[in-house]
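hey so i finally got around to running the thing on that chain from the lab meeting. sorry it took forever, my laptop kept dying and i had to restart like 3 times. anyway pasting the input first so we r on the same page abt which one it is
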Amino acid sequence: MNNIIFINKYLLIILILFVSIFFVNLKQSIASINIRLDVEGCNNNNICEPSTGENNLNCSNDCTSCNNNGVCELLKGETFLSCPLDCKTTRDHKTTLIYTDVPVVVTGTILDLKIETGINYAVISWNTDVPTFGQVSWGRGDNFNDGVINNTKIMKHHEVVIENLSASTNYSYFINSSLPEYYIATKYGNFTTLPIPEIRIIPSIYNLISTSTDDEIILNWSNPESEDFYGVKIVRSPFFFPADPSEGKVVYDGRGTYFRDSDVSFDQRYYYSAFSYNKDLEFSSGVITDSIFKIKKTITVAESTKSLEEVKLSISDFIFLEGDLELPVSSSTVRIYPFNDIKIVIDANRLPPQTKTLILRIQDPLDVSKVFSYNLKLDLVGKFFYVVVPNYFNKNIFPFSIISYGLDNKEVFVLKGFFDIKNIEVPKSSSFDIILTISLSIIILIILFIFLFYKYNRERRIII
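ok and heres what got predicted. didnt touch it at all, straight out
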């Protein structure tokens, strides 16, 4: 009997301990899920709209009876009965009710609405027939909670640029153009950002370096270890880096890893672009280098001192992809993983109109003499600039710069950032963690019950 009592206590303690641990883990897992409950019929636009189901119960922000701000806001349902402090009244000799000190609020219309979308941005512009303040709020799906932009100037033409959006995503927007107490015009709608363009990855060469001797310029590089690699074509120009294999003079076409260019003139700068290709003659992004004959070192382009405030661009305006994973950008630092090639994309509309060429330069942190440069390619329809960089990085922080050149081959702007692969952390799915935790807990619980039940019955038979 004592053994049975001991076993029952043992079973009870184990079960209490296990259930406590199980619910603690479950609570922590569920806490990581952001559950959002929206009240249906309320858009929080400060206007009471009964036709859409808004009322004082489900939308107190919009359908408030009185806010005591000294303005009789008829559009929000304020009257002399519900809000006597805002809607002051007097009576004439016929005891007829008359409103006094009540501003006339004119309901206007949003005119000439235009929406231009890109991969990660949207430009919304509109006009009003009187000068107003402009406000745009937006959000994913059917809400407007992701952000709001207020124009503090009174004007008839309004334009708002919404940035840091996600590609291929539907957003709702709400426009509020108003002059408090006199005029209000609103507009709801939706827009969808563009998808990230499909980029065919053609493995490019790497470690392209140029050196000058007394009678020639020598190019050295490494070929990609890929079944898709069929050859490399090097194109030279005395003017600027060729953006396409058809530009400039072809000086090399083969599968080697070096080339000696002896057809050079004294004191002349030469620009080389190397394009690897597959058996279908599909070419990679251009890998670039430049050199001046008779000077025994690689000549790099001087960094621009042009103010970036004039350009209004940052590293976060570019999209960095590794496979299908969009890499986060924080303070001009891009965290990458040593797995797939890196794809960099930017909408051409985001760049200054004088931009002709974009170049990516990556500095080897262990050897300052090694700078790997790539020419961003313009797609066939002229909508996106993109480049594919082979992921040959080791664990370190690699400084990089993106340089824009104009039609005169002068720098338009220089953006600087870092590729950080110092601390590699592969992201895990929180949903998978929750399912795994619950599944393992249930399995352990079943096994424990079977074991204790078997032991309990065995001890009971022994005692009997």
